[in-house]
Design goal:
This protein is α/β, with parallel strands linked by helices. The chain is 25% helix and 22% strand. It has an eight-stranded parallel barrel, surrounded by four helices. A six-stranded mixed sheet has the order 12-19-16-17-15-14. A five-stranded mixed sheet has the order 4-7-2-1-10, with no helix packed on it. α10 links the parallel β29 and β30. The chain is globular. It starts with a strand and ends in a 6-residue tail after the last helix. The model has no long low-confidence stretch (mean pLDDT 96).
């Protein structure tokens, strides 16, 4: 007897083709069962043949067979054209007549003519060089030498050097727990000459000593450069070298903002994973961790005034307010960060020279919050009157309700003391067309449409942040309508080069985060079995590495820096996370730190295989 399992096939056709799902083993199932599955591919109009589509909620679908026996059904008028095998059914389970559930296996999506993998071959490795990334601004080598076993401090070491030395030791032990420690009783002594160079530093190499000219964050970055050079030369002496006596390295970053964004709403990442991620960021001299804490799929940060946000909004599963989504089984998933967790992570990040930038994504992307706090819904708004790009209905906080601004202010009251960074990100992206059109409360604002309503709402939130001495971060949709006040905003440009140029030209400070190059969930090739999303095309590592921010942003003085963005819809395992994120995250890090002339693709490609992973 065939055990129940699901396969799916896509065929070309009008309106993004035909998506056919087959439940094998249905003949042995009791009458009255239903099939639940998760998939980002959905019908836009309820066009289905062979089954009754009973529920669609984001990526969650619930269907019932129309007859006993074999069960296969087809969806048309699809939300997008699938490009990869992970675009099909991500997970599935049976809902049996007695109310119990049974998770069942799924297979990757198939199609008639799958595209082949077009990943370019790696370049030939260059001649041996220093194992450094980001590449320093200036390197003057007299020669090369064997890597030392490690570094030690003189008895009269300054307090600043001792603190940086201890941090570097902890960082190295976190990333390479199986390697001998570099920062301990090593043969090479470190000397410190305090110089106010900001994040910059200068290293002077002697036979038995290294002199560090730096202060503040530059001191740790100097030690990280020493650690990289020593570690790689020690592990791979045929490929990497170490500076000989008389050599110098002088360095400083190109951009102030060198960020990495992580979406923890679609996937919950345990604290230990976040700590290791921060360590990898520090290893590559990234200095902003953009923590995407809320979205439609979950609310992940504790708000004591609204315990339901994490009691209800952080849990997904069959029978819960939020259904299983994005590869969940029937039991779903649950997880959130306490305020104590957040404060601890902020402190640990600060020791590594990293600011934590929290994001509470409003007004759209708020399904989890609205399910947890239904008093934030206009009771007179027509249900299901608009749908978001990700398939959630009526998913935006309503600016016409006084309770909405009270809610935002309460959230800020609790989180601003925890997150001292000047930028607090409030999202502002992907408000659906027609949002609030059927809401009497929103219509009473007398504003012409969703862009104007959002603009007025975001300006009020921005004013609250400005009163606290903070700047509002927002995705580039925050500039739509009347926009927000440019002097109190940092806009994250993700949609297009033309839009990024327009934003800088009208006075916004911009962080460069293009979906077509720096969104690390996007697939790396057209190959059918390459994991990742396809809506922004495909981005091989070399394309990420060679993307130049100055080509996108018109006013150079308005370019704050660069940021990689990790969205978690398709990152269903740590192996896929590592495949998608590395080394593209490190490519963005090098763009953020190194001057364009210092970047060299063959050198980076040769080194990238040796970078640490999550």
């Amino acid at each position: 007897m065939t055990e129940p399992h699901v396969t799916a096939h896509w065929a070309e056709g009008p309106d993004n083709g035909r998506f056919t799902i087959t439940l094998h083993g249905a003949e042995a199932l009791p009458a009255g069962y239903r099939l639940a599955y998760t998939s980002q591919l959905r019908t836009l109009s309820g066009a289905i043949s062979g089954a009754e589509l009973q529920q669609v909620d984001g990526s969650f679908h619930l269907v019932a067979p129309l007859a006993e026996g074999p069960f296969s059904f087809t969806l048309t008028n699809l939300s997008f054209t699938p490009k990869h095998s992970n675009d099909g059914v991500m997970s599935a389970f049976l809902v049996l007549p007695d109310g119990t559930t049974q998770d069942i296996p799924t297979a990757p999506l198939t199609c008639d003519n799958p595209p082949v993998d077009d990943t370019p071959p790696p370049p030939a490795p260059p001649a041996p060089g220093l194992g450094l990334s980001p590449m320093p601004a200036e390197i003057a080598l007299t020669s090369t030498a064997a890597a030392p076993a490690g570094f030690s401090l003189p008895p009269d070491a300054s307090a600043a050097l001792r603190a940086a030395f201890a941090t570097a030791a902890t960082l190295f032990a976190t990333l390479f727990p199986d390697q001998p420690q570099l920062f301990g009783a090593g043969p090479v002594q470190l000397c410190h000459v305090p110089e106010d160079m900001g994040e910059g530093y200068r290293l002077a190499f002697q036979a038995d000593a290294v002199t560090i000219h730096a202060s503040g964050p530059g001191l740790l970055y100097a030690l990280i450069t020493l650690a990289q050079a020593t570690h790689h030369a020690r592990q791979n002496p045929a490929l990497f070298t170490y500076p000989a006596a008389g050599s110098t390295i002088a360095d400083s970053p190109r951009f102030q903002w060198r960020g990495a964004h992580l979406d923890v709403a679609r996937r919950f990442y345990p604290m230990d994973d976040l700590r290791r991620f921060l360590a990898i960021m520090a290893w590559h001299k990234l200095n902003r961790f953009h923590w995407h804490l809320t979205d439609d799929e979950a609310w992940r940060i504790e708000i004591r005034a609204f315990p339901a946000l994490t009691e209800t909004g952080a849990t997904r599963g069959w029978g819960q307010a939020m259904p299983p989504l994005l590869g969940d089984g029937a039991a779903g998933q649950s997880g959130h960060y306490s305020q104590a967790d957040a404060a601890a992570l902020v402190a640990e990040a600060a020791a590594l020279g990293i600011e934590v930038i929290p994001e509470i994504d409003i007004p759209a992307h708020s399904t989890a919050a609205l399910r947890a706090l239904p008093h934030l819904i206009d009771p007179d708004e027509t249900p299901d009157s608009y749908i978001s790009v990700h398939g959630f209905k009526n998913n935006a906080l309503n600016p016409g309700l006084p309770a909405t601004l009270d809610f935002v202010n309460t959230v800020l009251d609790e989180l601003l003391p925890i997150f001292p960074a000047r930028v607090f990100h409030l999202g502002g992206d992907e408000v659906a067309r027609g949002a609030w059109d059927s809401s009497p409360a929103a219509r009473r604002l007398n504003l012409p449409g969703s862009s104007a309503i959002q603009s007025a709402f975001m300006r009020r939130c921005q004013a609250r942040l400005a009163a606290e001495g903070r700047i509002m971060g927002g995705w580039d949709e925050c500039a739509e309508g009347d926009g927000v006040a440019a002097e109190d905003a940092l806009i994250f440009a993700w949609q297009s080069a033309d839009l990024a140029k327009m934003l800088s030209n009208v006075g916004y400070n911009v962080t460069f985060a293009p979906a077509t190059a720096y969104y690390l969930d996007i697939a790396q090739s057209h190959g059918w079995h390459e994991p990742g999303a396809s809506w922004a095309g495909m981005t091989p590592v070399q394309a990420t590495y060679e993307t130049e921010p100055s080509d996108w942003v018109g006013q150079a003085e308005k370019l704050a820096g660069v940021q990689a963005c990790i969205w978690s819809e398709t990152l269903v395992s740590k192996a896929i996370f590592n495949h998608q994120v590395f080394p593209r995250l490190c490519a963005v890090a090098e763009t953020g730190w190194s001057q364009p002339g210092a970047r060299h693709w063959p050198r980076f490609a040769a080194l990238s295989a040796h970078f640490p992973r999550l």
